[in-house]
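Suppose you are handed a protein chain with no further information: no name, no annotation, nothing but its sequence. What can you learn? This example shows the usual starting point.
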Amino acid sequence: MLAHGAPDQLSDIPEFLLNVRGGRPLPEPVVKEIIHRYSLIGGGSPLLRLTTQQAEALAKLVSHPVYVGMRNWKPFILEAVHRLSNDGIQRIVALCLAPQNSRTSIGLYRKALMEAVEKVHSSLIVDFVENWHDHPGLIEAFCERAAAAIVAAKDEAGGDVPVIFTAHSVPERTIADGDPYERQVRETAALVAAGIGLRDYRVAFQSQGLTGEKWIGPTVESQIDELAQAGVNHVLLIPVGFVCDHVEILYDIDVLFRDYGKARGVTVRRSESLNASPRFVAALANLISAHVECVGEKL
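A reasonable first move is to predict its three-dimensional structure. Written in structure tokens, the prediction is:
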């Protein structure tokens, strides 16, 4: 299981950001801002803890060892390959915990994994899961969270509440180069909406990078603005580009967007993250088991 990685404490953040940026430093004010954001969510990210819970639950269902490797923080992908090599593993199924495929996410994880394999265990057989944004089990897991959130939002608002599906933004040039990410985000959102009988909804992109280039939109803020101007005072965000809590959920949504909405008279809620949801873990087991069987047939 491959994930982005996240700092465990505030003192880790400068080194973590250098890893994310491939050694290119960010301006000091940007680093301080990111440290401030992490300080508001407890000083560190729960990403590793939650990913480990997902891995442990998955291992019980598939009856195979499950390893966790992070691209930008400990335990690194290279460390995970060392561990599985020492354990005598000869073939693996690799899954990036980003449902929608982009060269800025899944592409980079695959590159990091294959470089580690070549360095440590060149005979390892790797079956890399390329796409799973429309896997029925994933959609069911998102639907379960979304349906519960809609009920709670309606109870609070006393009526229907507009829904915005969200996912991490990527640079516009990425999509212009033919990347499937935006299309897959919209497909995931459409499948979840259909699964819960939701006809009217919006799709927005969040967590744009602190760089000078353009990132895809519309932004969540722009959608809140439009709804506020239309007299709406409750909005529900359903993140479908993330599978567990981390800074993009706990700060960008729970702090930034809620404060942004409050300043405009809009109460912003969100659906609960999948985290170690039994339905989500069952979806992962179904996905992985199919690939394990496929690898076995090839051999």
